[in-house]
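Objective 1.3, modelling of assemblies. Example input:
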Amino acid sequence: MVKACLFDLDGVIVDTAKYHYLAWRRLANELGFEFTEEDNERLKGVSRMKSLEILLEIGGVSFDEETKEAMAAKKNAWYVEYISKMDSSEVLPGVIDFLTSLRENGIKISLGSVSKNAMIILKNTDVDKYFDAVIDGTKITHAKPDPEVFLKGAEELGVDPKECVVFEDAQAGIEAAINAGMHSVGVGSPEILGKADFVISSFNEMSLNRLKF
Ligand code: B16
Ligand code: MG
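Predicted structure (tokens):
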């Protein structure tokens, strides 16, 4: 049995992708071009500045660094406005039951997200109390597939990477787990997350006896 579970946030604990989408689309529209939900798929698990680069590439426009920083800040202010209205009803199915059974069985829990807004989301949805460690975008310098976010989580929990399992909805996140020498469970579609040890479509399919690798 593993000793620690490390969770990505967006797409695993909650679905904040829709709020990222609304905020990025608002920016794109302000710049005079469309941004579709399909385009938004390319931003999942990607850092804020890299997401902006992709958005500007889709719109076929370019700006200097200072303007890009201001645009990212503007998008983030809109995004924060949306997520400030979130509550516990937005936690994805099966997540609370699974987190509860982990705690009852002494398995440590860490967050491993590249989002700089992770703490607000955890607090608003009332899941912060389940976490022994929170590693987010404010604590890392390398984005996934770099293993930094998960290695820091394991270190803070005092657990060997080999005894950790990562839950991820993004391909780059599964690669980060592999690069960290950890087990991984994909949350979503097996076509995208094929490198994971196994894939679930929701936490309703998850139980402690599946944590033996
Ligand atoms: P922020 P995760 C990621 O969260 C999102 O999937 C991605 O779409 C977003 O751009 C990134 O966080 C940065 O978020 O702008 O809030 O710092 O999947 O790593 O939990
Ligand atoms: Mg994610």
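Residues 65-83 form the longest helix (19 residues).
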